[in-house]
Structures are given as C-alpha cells and as structure tokens.
Design a protein that fits this description.
The complex is a heterotetramer of chains A (320), B (294), C (378) and D (257). Chain A is mostly helical and 320 residues long. Chain A is built from 14 helices and no strands. In chain A, helix 1 (8-31) packs antiparallel against helix 12, helix 2 runs parallel beside helix 4 and helix 6 crosses helix 7 (148-175). Chain B has 294 residues and is mainly alpha-helical. In chain B, 72% of the residues lie in helices and 4% in strands. Chain B is built from eleven helices and four strands; from the N terminus they run H-H-H-H-E-E-E-H-H-H-H-E-H-H-H. The longest helix of chain B has 29 residues, at 2-30. Chain B starts with a helix and ends in a 15-residue tail after the last helix. Classes of the chains: A mainly alpha (320), B mainly alpha (294), C alpha/beta (378), D alpha/beta (257). Chains in contact: A-B, A-C, A-D, B-C. At the A-B interface, helix 4, helix 11 and helix 13 of A face helix 4, helix 9 and helix 11 of B.
C-alpha cells in the first residue's frame, strides 16, 4: 500500500541539489554581464536570515517571508552593485567575497537580531507546515499511500523543483530577449554596447541585483528546508562552492551551472562510501576539469549539437 | 600595553606580509590569483613541525626542509594546474582560479590525512629566547620574523630590479609575447616564479609555527584569505604594497582587539578591501588601473 | 503539529518495522535470543571538526566490539560522515533512516547538526542520541531525541562555583569563540553564572575558529589583571590559548566549559595546561574498575588516552545496547521506550539517568590540571 | 541645422586633442571629416557620443544640447556610430548583432520578456524583420546566421554599419569605413553611404582617401592638430592653401588615437 521506493533520503539529496542549482544559476546571471560575484553566499544568508527572523519572530507566513527574503537580498544587491560598477574581473570577485565575509561577521556579532553563532532554530519547515495544514483540512498522506515523512520530503522536493524550474525558465526566456541580448552585448564589449544605445550601467546593476535576489531566494528556501540556519552555513566555502558549480558545469550556457550544481552536489553523496577521501577526490576532479575542459562540462556548441540546431538567443553566449 | 600590542601587531603583520608576497609575485607575473598559496604555506608549517618537533633536528633543517617541499609543491602546481591552461584559446579567466582552488582543497585534505586533524605542537628551544625592555617582553622570534620579512622584501625588490632573471621576470609580467620575442624563456621564468613564491610560503609557515607554537590544517585558509586581502589593499603585484599592507592589517587587527571589539577582528580585512577598492581600486601601491586587467 | 508527526512516526514504525526488519534480515524472533541491530552513526570524518569525530567513532567502535563479544546481542554500525555541515548530516540521517533502515542513530557530533537532524529522526520515529551535543533545547526537539552528553548548563555552574569558592574570585575576564554554537552557548552560561555570583566582568573577548594568534586578546586581558579567566573554547583552540597565555606570564586559573575537557589539552599545551578547571562527566583517572578497563583498552587500541568525546560515545553505544536488551527486539519504538526508562545506569561516566525529557541526570566531577594531570578539584 | 558644435575643446593628460572646434551639419548632407593623423577626428566622434569625458563647449543636436549626456541617451536621440577598429559582438551571429542595435527602438523589459507577452512577441517579430531588411541593405542577405567573428573583414564593416543603422539614427558617424579595403569594396561602401543618405540619414564620414572623399561628400571639415583649419565644398577645400600645407607629404594610412 505504501510507495516504498520513494526514499526520503534521495528526495533530501535532490532537494539540496535544487537549492544549489538555484545558487549556481545566481552566479551565472551576474556572469552573463561579465561580472564575477563571489558575494552570493552573503546574499543567500541575507535571504535566509530575513525570512527566518520574520517567520519565527514576527509571525509572517512562509511565502511572505520568502518573498521578503528575496527582496531584501535584491536591495542589498543594488547597494553593493552600484558602487562595485567600477570594478572588473578579479577585483570585483575579491570585493564581493569581502562583502560576503563582512555579512557573515555581522550576523555572528549582531546577537540580538540573529542569535549570533547559535543561529536561528525552529524555522517553519515547508514540508511539515504543508502537512500540518493539510491534516487540519482533513487530508492524510496515507490516503495516497505515503508515509508522513515521505510526504514531507516529497513536498519539499516538489516545491523546490517548481521554484527551480521557474527560475531556469525565467532566465532562459530572459536570455533570448531584448534584455538577454543587452546582457550578452555588455559581456562581450561594453563600449560597443553603449554605442548600440544600451544603458550598460543599468543592465550591469540589473544583472547583479537579479543574481543577488536569486541567491536570497535560494537562501530563504534553504532556511525553510532545513529549519535551522547559522552563520556557519554561509562561509567562504559556500561562496567558492557556488562559483565552482558555475565554472565546473560551464559558465557559458545557462545549463552549465544547472548541471554543475547537480553533479557536484550529488557526487559527494554517491562518494559516501569513500567518505574519508571525498574531498581529495573532489579537489582532483576540479583540477582535471580545468585542465581538460576549462569551459566547463556544458558549452554552447555542445548544447547546439545536442539540440541539433543553432541557438537563437544571445544571452547564452560568453565573452571572458 | 601599547608597546606589547605593537609588537604583537608587527609580528602578525610581518607574517601576513610574507604570505602576501607569495600571492603578489604570482599575480604580478601570471595575472592570476593562486588560491592554493595558503595551503602550500600550511604544508611548509607542517614539514617544519615534523623536522623540528618530531625529529628534533635543528631549526635550519626545518627551514631547508620546508622550503624544499613547498618549492616542489609549487613546481607541481605549475605543471599540473597552471601550465595546461596557459595559452589555450577560449579559456575563461576564471579557470586558473578554479584549478588552484582544486589544489587547495586537495592539499588541505592531504594534510589532514598525513598530519592529522587538530593543533600540532611546534616546539623549538629558539622560540623560548626572550629579553625584556622596560616592562615589555620581546621574543627573539618576533624580531627574527620582522627581519626575515624585511630581508625577503628587500631581496625580492633587488632581484627584480638588478638581476637578469629578475628583469626577465618583469618583462614576462609586462607581456608574455613581448618577453618571448625578446628571447626570455618565459616557461622557465613562470615556473621559477611559482616555485619561489611557494618557497616563501614555506618560510612563512615555519615562522608561524615558531611564533604561535601551534599549527593545524586550517591555517592555510585563514592566512590565505588575509594574504588575499592584503594584496588588494597594497596593490596587486606590488612588493612594497604587500609589505605595507601586511603590517597595516596586522596592526589594525591587533589594535581593534586591544581598544575595540574582538568580534570584528576578521571583518577588518574584508571591510578594508571593499573600501580600498571603491576609493582607490588599484590599491595602495598599485599602478595599473584595475579596468585594464581582466 | 508535532504531536501529529510523532503519531505518524509511531504509526509508521509499528506498521512497517516488522516488514522492513524482516526484509533486511534481522530481529529474527523465535530463532533464539539473539538481537541483531543495525545502528547508524553520524560523525565528522572530514573537515575542520574531524578531530572530534575521530575520538567519537573510536569510542563507538570499542563499545561495539565489547557488546558483540557478549552473547545475545549483535550490533552493526553504519557510519556516515557529516563534515560538520547540517545538510550533509541531514542527508546522512535520511540515508540511515530510509536506506539502511537502522533501528537507532548515534550522533551527530554538533548541536547545530542535531537541530536539523533531530526533528527528522523524531518525525520518522527513530531514536536518536547525541553523545556530544551540549547546547540547550536538544532533547526538547521530540520524544525520540536523547542525549548522554553533559549539557553546559549543568557543567559550567559546577566548575565556576567551585573555582569561585576555592580561589575567592572577584573579578574575571571572559574569553570565548563567538563563531561556534558550542562555545557561544557555553559563554552565555558563563556570563549568566558570573552575574548571578556578582563577579566583576573586566572584559569580554572573542576569537574565531582556527585562529592561530591570541596574543592581542591575551595582552589586553593580562593588563586588566583578572583573578581568573573564564574561557569557553573547544580544546583545539583552548589549549593554544592556555599555552600562549602562560608564555605571556598570565598565571591565573582558567575555568573552561565542557569542550575544554580533554587529555589533548595537556598533550597540546604541556605544562601550560596547569591551572585549568573544568567540570566533566568524564574523569579518566577515576578509581573505578570500569573506567580503568576502558582507558586501558582504548589506549591499547588507539595509542592515546580517551577523551570525554570517546567516553561519552562509548557509554552512548552501551546505553543503546542496554535499551535493546530491555526492549528485547531491534524495534525503533520499543527501543525508544526502553531507553527513556533507563535510570541509574553505571557506565564509564558514572551513574547516569535520563530525566523525563530524556536529558542527562548526573553529578559532574570538577577537575583541575595539576602537574600535567587531571585531578579532582577539591 | 541637425547638429551644431560650438567651441568644443577637449584635452587630456596635458594634450589638447580638440581646440575650439565649431561647425554645423545640415540635414541630409554627407559631411567629410578629414585631416592628418592625430588631428582629433576620432576624438571628435568620441566627444559627440560622450565616450570620453572632460570636453567643454556646446553640442546642439536637433535643437537640444547633448553634451554631458551619457552615450546611450545620445544614441537614443538619433545618433549611430561605427568604430575605427571594428567593434562587433564577436560570438553573436550577424543577425543578433543587428538585433542588439535595435535596443533603443524596442522596449520590452524583464517581465514582458519573461512572460512573452503579445506585445513582446510582436516586437521581436518587428525587430527580426527590420534586422533582415538592414542586413539586406548592406549586402549581408544570406549571412544572417553567421557568427560575426567568422565573417570576412569587409562584411564585418558592413555589419557594423547595419548595427549602427538599426537604431534608426538621424545622424550616422562612420569612422573610416573603407580602411583596409580594395578599390571595388570601397566603391560599394560609398555606394552604400549614398543609399543611406537617400533614406534620410545625415552622415559624418571620417576618411583618408581624398579622391573618394571628394566624390562622395557634399561638404568637408578639415582638422589639424585639434583645430579646424578649413570648411567648405570639396572644390573649395582642394584649393585651400592651408589644407595643402597640412597634407603635404603626410598622406598615409592609420589615424589618431
């Protein structure tokens, strides 16, 4: 009577894959205008903390908290994005990395708001909340052959899956539009883009803000998926991890960071049997990738070959 | 207390400076940030620890061993993670950043397996020699660290300015193609740069062990991030900038603890980066505008 | 809502446990008294906290060998790495609960991890016992969540109280790691206790994980000349702090939290460790045959003295074995009930009971390091 | 007057690139901008389109002052330009390059683009239509799908002109559009320039090839060391003694910075 093959552990892994996918896309979006941001762990933490504080202390419903988290992260993105316009390449990367660290230190020290290193616990978990309200409405997951924890994990997965699909669809469509062409133009030649009448400042800040907002959105979902957050979740390691998703999977096509995030999140899980040497393997893998396929797993020619056609959109192209 | 804190700050700052020198040298020539530099430094510290504490060998042997091993690591890094990426078309400028991150993860976890997790005692009689000026105790190690950092910086500047290989290195830094046209063996120069930078990391590692008596496999990351902050602050590729930046960061971290709140100690480095980059993006001693470098 | 989940978990456990257990081939009732139990372990095998994970896993393995040497019980351990990260700990828990179908979980190592893993195990009706989680509110997560690690809320008042009485302390300096849950909540307790005892707090200094240089903080503290330093640190950082402090000529006693209590402190800080006062569930020099046997066996096997993490892990698995024997079968719900009923258990930590909230009831020992050895502080 | 430049001065790093330059451009004419290397011709284009800062003087375009406006605003008001060293978007196709050029004549924002509203789809269709029209005009019909960087040099020049025309400019600034081209290619480009003018676009043309300048331009402005030394019809300029002196023995390829 039960759907036994539906294993919450696999759904759990899949859910984190999806959150990491969102993060991978977030760095890609900023990169689409030629800006490398390593501050996305910081924006993620802003989104996570905002919704955690609003839902646990101010009684916000979860969806409102998630929206608020994304918006606050976007505002932070604007605040960081505008002054950072002067910086390019490695300098922008390091400055945004610095921003992420500063945000983390502030969260550690601002105890009255964030609880410091102890973090915020008992954040409403989306699966459990959903189950609770459905049960109140008289629904039992057993009636569709699911155990309680299966239902919880499945609903978390489905919510995240829908969110991720929306985000990918959003940026896929944006990529092959006027805005996406403007992004690609800015990435390839800023001056020529200006001469084509593109407000490069606007589009750079827009892309930066979209990246920040998506990170914040991912962070908010993360908070409601794990129900506990602390500054330790948003360290330098997270920032680097997000970057690695994009560059490993491929930073020249939207699908690159998507697959990068999926593979690199699932891989350590698959490698659990050799868990002692997991990170050693991980490190070697990174080096090997860069040596043998530096543009990442997925690049536009590969996508075109797989799709059997030439890409029409400009947003999926790169200039370094 | 001021004098003591000043000494603390200078010691910390000198170590930062030596770590930053390694970053700045590689960036100056290759235009890339070697994210594995911190971990190479950490390896140097562990090799020094094994030689001095476990084998009871003299300190000079520790320096020699650390320099040898880190130089070898630098060579391997260049051969495995950097050279294959060089000169290939269509390679993102992020590729070397990622490959060196790969090396750093690898080294951090190798150190864990080889030397174990947790703090390891770095014990050397030399570290106990101290003298008192007025009410302030100064350890000889602290003086040595400052001296070594000054000597390294001076030596590096002289080497770059005066010697043939130094000039070749600067030419390579200006333009790889031009240097090649001028007959500079750029492959050798680049390898030498990474090896020298790594060896300096090895020296810094032993010095850290002597100064703080303990090392663990995480020091690479924390020192590495500080080193990164310093070269932004001092100006990428600037030797004087690394030195000044290191000292300023060491002193300000110490004095924030002494007269302010220790919780924000780690934020200083990064806050400084942000402010400096926005007000003077080329850094304290940098010349080229950052827009020129991609 | 919690009640419903618990209920769901129970329903699940009762309905499916026999099926699942049958499928995986253990709990073969009727074939003899043998109880065959698969217990999951979530520990830190890689990353910064691996030093703790190592001691904990050693403790589990030693206890496992001993239990299996006896008749009537066979325990298999499925050990998973969490790297100290919540998501990985949660994924590991999901794997243990659903793929490996363990009867109970030991771990995870950190309180932060438990806050994520605990609700999951609880909802799935799997007993979970933290052997090193000392923060507040752990067992309140739900009725399947246990711990046998001495909470800081018990340990710190004991050590501070004794130190204040013995040394007549009036003014103290506080020093803690502010980016770690464990040391931060230890500090919160220290601060509360200090205020209750009307001690003058001269300064509060912080440090961060993995820091190598504490001289700036220590120089500042030295110049304020406190009677004692209350230091909430894990032994990794704590030992280095002690060493650097003594080297600077700070001779006053240190009072530490639970995480400071490890023979490693002496190993790392050597003579500088003298004068450290800690309250602990674990005293390796205790004149108790059980303790002596454990220490001897552990030292023989791993080449070092067991610390409290190893000892708590050892007792943790022993408690599980006790619960299994009482339950008479490898069943999640039955094991939970059996565990919750354990009172006056004699382990290497001393006499141990679970209270109504499945939290620890025990008398911590207050120790001081003198001449490079932990001794009872009287 | 379509464009009025009054007393435009531009200096950087102690070098005065333009000194007190004043001239006007009439609607519908082809104005040649000539002068030896380093005369300040390209700088004038940069000043006109705000791609350098620090210039003084008034620039009035279609009755409005545009100096100090940001580049994209000036482009939006009806100025199109090409670059001396072709600046295409290298990894876009020819069509995509021109579509980018339609930016100012289209308006779909983020949400319209993502939701694919009816207006947005109609606009994309129009963009594509207009793009193909322009590509045909410059002689790139059939090359729409080729990647820009893979096109032959002459085609890249034409593509850049098509991109500049995509914003439907009133004024087109062409910076040496025939540099490096052979005779027949040059003739074709000049033919194209006339065609563009006939469509109602005023053109300012920087050119070195004097014979061709004489054929195609209605009027000429001559710059030397940042100053205007002459202005008039090709015949007048040909007989101007100052111009002859300035050009003596300095006929060569290349240009100022």
């Amino acid at each position: 009577m039960a759907v036994d093959w539906l294993n919450p552990y696999h759904l759990q892994v899949a859910s984190f894959v999806l959150i990491n996918t969102l993060l991978g896309v977030s760095i890609y979006v900023t990169l689409a205008t030629g800006q490398l941001s390593l501050g996305n762990a910081g924006f993620m933490s802003i989104g996570a903390y905002t919704t955690a504080i609003l839902t646990t202390r101010h009684g916000f419903p979860m969806p409102a908290g998630i929206v608020a988290g994304s918006v606050v992260a976007a505002l932070a993105g604007i605040a960081v994005g505008i002054p950072s316009l002067r910086l390019t390449g490695v300098y922008l990367a390091i400055a945004t990395l610095g921003f992420g660290e500063v945000v983390r230190v502030v969260f550690v020290n601002w105890e009255s708001l964030t609880g410091g290193a102890v973090g915020i616990a008992a954040i409403p978990q989306m699966g459990r909340e959903l189950l609770a309200s459905l049960r109140d409405a008289g629904f039992a997951p057993e009636s569709i052959g699911l155990r309680g924890n299966q239902f919880i994990s499945l609903s978390v997965f489905l919510i995240l899956f829908a969110s991720t699909l929306c985000a990918i669809g959003f940026f896929f469509r944006l990529g092959s539009s006027r805005v996406g062409r403007a992004y690609a133009a800015v990435r390839m030649d800023e001056r020529a883009a200006e001469a084509a009448g593109i407000d490069t400042t606007y589009y750079k800040v827009l892309a930066f803000t979209q990246g920040a907002m998506l990170s914040g959105f991912a962070g908010a979902l993360f908070a409601h998926a794990t129900s506990y957050i602390s500054p330790a979740d948003f360290t330098y390691h997270r920032a680097v991890e997000i970057l690695v998703f994009a560059v490993f999977g491929g930073s020249e096509h939207l699908l690159g960071p998507v697959f990068g995030a999926m593979l690199l999140t699932a891989l350590p899980e698959l490698l659990r049997s050799v868990s002692d040497y997991r990170y050693i393997v991980y490190g070697i893998l990174l080096i090997a990738m860069m040596v043998f396929r530096p543009q990442g797993l997925i690049d536009p020619p590969l996508v075109n070959r797989l799709a059997g056609k030439k890409a029409a959109g400009g947003g999926s192209r790169d200039a370094a | 207390m001021f004098a003591e804190q000043l000494i603390n700050g200078i010691t910390l700052g000198s170590i930062y400076a030596i770590v930053a020198l390694g970053y700045t040298l590689v960036f100056g020539v290759l235009d890339i940030i070697n994210m594995a530099h911190g971990e190479i430094f950490m390896f140097g510290a562990f090799i020094g620890m094994v030689i001095v504490t476990k084998m009871n060998a003299p300190l000079a042997a520790a320096f020699a061993g650390a320099v040898l091993v880190t130089a070898a690591l630098g060579y391997l890094l260049e051969r495995v993670a950097l050279r294959p990426l060089r000169g290939r078309t269509g390679v993102s400028h992020l590729a070397p950043l990622i490959s060196t991150i790969g090396v750093s993860i690898l080294l951090e976890n190798l150190a864990h397996h080889i030397f174990g997790a947790g703090n390891q005692l770095f014990e050397t009689p030399f570290a106990e020699i101290r003298f008192t000026i007025g009410s302030t105790t100064v350890y000889l190690v602290q003086v040595v660290i400052l001296a070594v950092s000054v000597v390294l910086m001076g030596g590096l500047s002289l080497w770059l300015a005066r010697t043939r290989s130094g000039k070749g290195l600067r030419a390579t830094a200006e333009s790889l193609e031009t240097a090649e046209l001028l007959g500079v063996d750029t492959k050798r120069i680049i390898t030498a740069t990474v090896v020298i930078a790594s060896a300096m990391g090895g020296i810094a590692g032993v010095l850290v062990g002597m100064a703080f008596n303990y090392i663990n496999n995480q020091i690479g990351l924390s020192m590495g991030l500080k080193g990164l902050a310093i070269i932004i602050f001092g100006g990428m590729g600037s030797v004087a900038g690394a030195m000044a930046g290191g000292l300023i960061l060491g002193l300000s971290e110490t004095f924030v603890v002494a007269y302010g709140s220790s919780g924000y100690r780690d934020a200083i480095a990064f806050l400084t980066i942000i402010v400096v980059l926005l007000l003077r993006p080329q850094g304290l001693f940098g010349r080229a505008a950052p827009e020129a470098r991609r | 809502m919690n009640g419903k989940i618990r209920l769901a978990g129970l329903v699940f456990a009762f309905v499916f446990a026999p099926v699942l257990l049958g499928a995986t081939g253990y709990a073969e009732k009727g074939k003899g008294p043998e109880i065959h139990a698969k217990i999951g372990v979530i520990s830190i095998l890689t990353g910064p906290g691996a030093a703790y994970g190592e001691a904990i896993t050693n403790g589990f393995k030693l206890a496992q060998e001993e239990m299996n040497a006896r008749a009537g019980l066979r325990i298999d351990l499925v050990i998973e790495d969490s790297s100290g990260k919540q998501e990985q700990a949660l994924a590991a828990a999901q794997k243990l609960i659903n793929s490996d179908q363990v009867v109970a979980i030991l771990g995870p190592t950190l309180s932060t991890e438990m806050k994520v893993v605990g609700p999951e195990a609880n909802a799935s009706g799997v007993p979970i016992m933290g052997t090193s989680t000392t923060a507040q509110g752990i067992t309140q997560i739900g009725k399947f969540v246990f711990r046998n690690s001495l909470p800081e809320a018990l340990a710190i008042p004991a050590s501070i109280g004794k130190a204040v009485r013995k040394y007549n302390l009036r003014k103290v300096a506080l020093l803690y790691g502010n980016d770690d849950v464990f040391t931060k909540s230890g500090y919160d307790t220290m601060k509360k206790v200090s205020e209750e005892m009307k001690l003058a707090i001269l300064t509060t200094e912080t440090f961060q994980k993995g820091q190598a240089d504490y001289k700036a903080q220590l120089t500042k503290i030295k110049n304020l000349a406190p009677d004692a330093i209350f230091c909430s640190a894990l032994y990794e950082e704590g030992a280095v702090i002690l060493s650097q402090a003594r080297k600077m000529g700070i001779a006053v006693p240190f009072v530490g939290g639970n995480g400071f209590n490890s023979p490693k402190v002496i190993e790392i800080a050597k003579g500088a460790a003298d004068g450290l006062v800690v309250a602990t569930p674990w005293f390796g020099e205790k004149d108790d045959p059980k303790v002596k046997a454990f220490v001897a066996k552990y030292e023989k096997r791993y080449g070092k003295k067991p610390d409290q993490f190893a000892a708590q892990a050892y007792d943790g698995l022993t408690l599980m074995a006790e619960g299994l024997k009482k339950a008479g079968k490898a069943d999640r719900a039955a094991l939970r009930d059996a565990l919750a009923g354990i009172r006056n258990f004699h382990g290497v930590l001393g006499t141990f009971s679970f209270d109504e909230e499945r939290d620890v009831v025990m008398e911590p020992a207050v120790l001081i390091i003198r001449n490079g050895k932990f001794q009872l502080f009287r | 007057m379509l464009l009025d430049m009054r007393n435009v001065t531009m200096s950087f790093g102690g070098v005065t690139a333009l000194r007190d330059v004043s001239f006007s451009v009439r609607e519908g004419e082809i104005l040649g901008l000539i002068g030896p290397n380093g005369a300040g011709k390209t700088t004038l284009f940069h000043v006109l389109t705000s791609m350098v800062s620090g210039a003084s003087g008034d620039i009035v375009f279609r009755g409005e002052r545009i100096e100090g406006l940001s580049t994209h605003r000036i482009i939006r008001r009806g100025v199109g330009r090409t670059f001396q060293n072709i600046r295409l978007f290298p990894r876009m196709t020819a069509r995509e390059n021109v579509m980018v050029g339609r930016h100012t004549r289209s308006r779909a924002g983020v949400w319209q683009s993502v939701l694919r509203t009816r207006a947005q789809r109609a606009e994309e269709d129009r963009i594509r239509e207009k793009t193909d029209e322009l590509l045909a005009l410059v002689g790139l019909a059939g090359k729409e799908g080729s990647v820009a960087s893979a096109l032959p040099y002459g085609y890249q020049r034409r593509l850049e002109i098509a991109r500049a025309l995509a914003c439907e400019p009133k004024l087109l600034l062409l910076d040496e559009p025939v540099a490096g081209m052979n005779e027949s290619e040059t003739r074709e480009i000049h033919h194209l320039i006339r065609k563009v003018r006939d469509l109602g676009v005023t053109v300012i043309l920087i050119e070195h090839d004097m014979s061709l300048v004489m054929q195609v331009c209605d009027r000429l402005v001559v710059l030397n060391f940042g100053e205007k030394i002459a202005e008039g019809t090709p015949e007048e300029i040909q007989n101007d003694p100052g111009v002859i002196v300035a050009y003596l023995g300095r006929e060569e390829e290349g240009d100022d910075a």
